[in-house]
Design brief:
4 helices; four-stranded mixed sheet; three-stranded antiparallel sheet; alpha+beta
Amino acid sequence: MALKVKAKEKKLKFSKDGPEVYRYVMVPDLYSTLDQDKVIKEAAIRSGVSEGVMSACWKGAGEVIKAWATEGHSVALPGLGNMRFGLSAKAVADVNDVKSSLIRTRRIIFTPTVALKEELANTAINITCYDRNGEVVKRVTSTDPGTVEDPQGDDNGQNAENSENSQSEQGQQGNSSTSSETATTFALTISRTGTGSATVTKDGNAVNLRGQVP
C-alpha cells in the first residue's frame, strides 16, 4: 500500500515585488471517490453481516454522529478517531462587542487515533514528477517515516485566528511553504575609510557609498 503524490513544476511568486520562479509543488494524487454503497458493501463482506443490516447500522450511526456533533460533543468514530465542532472567529477587547457575526467559519475537525496516525506515517509515498509541459520527468518511491500533523487549533479554538492569519499570509506568497524556497539573510559590514565615505561589503563584494558616516 502506498500514497500517490504529484510533483508539478509551477510558476510561483514568493514576494509581492519579487520575480516569478518555477518550483516543483507536491499535491496528493487521489483516486476516485468511493460512494456510500461501495463502502457498505465492503464493510458487510469484512464483518460477515448482510448489506441490509450494515446499511441500517451505517445510517443509524451517521444520524447519531450528526446529532451529537451539532450539540457540541466530541464524537468517537470507531477505529478512526473523534469528530467535533470548531470555529474561526475575530477577537475583540470589549465584551459588549461579542456577537455571532464575529465567527468567520464553522468547522468540522477530525482527530485521528494514534493507530491511524502511525499507519499513515509508515505508509510509503510514490511521487510522480511533471515538468512545466506536463511531461513525466522522474518517479520517486519513499518508505521514510513521515509526520502526521494534528488538527489546527486547540479544543477551545484559541489558535484558530492565528492559524487563519498564517494561512492567509502563506496564500499571498504563492504557497511558498510547499517548496524549498527560503529567505536569505546577508551580513553587511560597514567600515569607515575616510571623511564622508564608507565601504559596504556584501558577499565579499565592496560597494562604495558616499555620505556622512556616524
